[in-house]
Amino acid sequence: MSSFVYAKIPLRPGWAERLPGTYEAVEQALSAGALGTLIGWGRSVSDPGGQGIDAVTHQRLDIEVGDQPRALGVLKATLARLGVPDGAELHYTEDGQALQMVYAAAGWAEPTASTATSRHRPRGR
After folding, report:
1. Which helix (H) or strand (E) holds 112?
2. What pLDDT tens digit does each residue of the chain (125 aa) get?
3. Which listed site, 5, 10, 35, 49, has its alpha carbon 20 to 30 Å from 58?
4. SS3 annotation, 33-97
5. Whole-angstrom Cα distance, residue 29 to residue 11?
């Protein structure tokens, strides 16, 4: 059974130029282990100052995986090797709970509840 994972990479200075290589490296790593497919990517916008003005802040990679635990391990290793900026995130669902892991120079943090509002289920369901 396949599942959906997405990565959010902060667009720090110099990262826009590195994105094509990032897509290729993620695709190759997943393909090498027959773990999944990069199904799309695009810029994520947010309202960082709460002023109603959207700004591009992240590049999002949408990924379909078969063996989620193994794929997450490969994604974490690949993104760390590529030197993603601090604050990069991996989002996924496990046992019906939306989770995320956040990257910092020390490595990937333990999973926590996702802060992505689009991933939360409505209350009472």
Report:
1. strand 112-113
2. 799 999 999 988 888 888 889 999 999 999 999 999 999 988 876 655 556 555 658 899 999 999 999 999 999 999 999 999 999 999 999 999 999 999 998 899 999 999 875 543 433 33
3. 35
4. CCCEEEEEEEEEEECCCCCCCCEEEEEEEEEEECCHHHHHHHHHHHHHHCCCCCCCEEEEEECCE
5. 22
Nearest to 79 by CA among 31, 7, 15: 7
Reduced to 3 states (helix: H, G, I; strand: E, B; else coil), residue 117 is helix
Pick from 34, 120, 38: which is nearest to 79 by CA?
38
| pLDDT tens figures, 41-59 | 888 766 555 565 556 588 9
Phi/psi of residue 27, nearest 5 degrees: -60, -45
Backbone angles phi, psi at 84, to 5 degrees: -55, 150
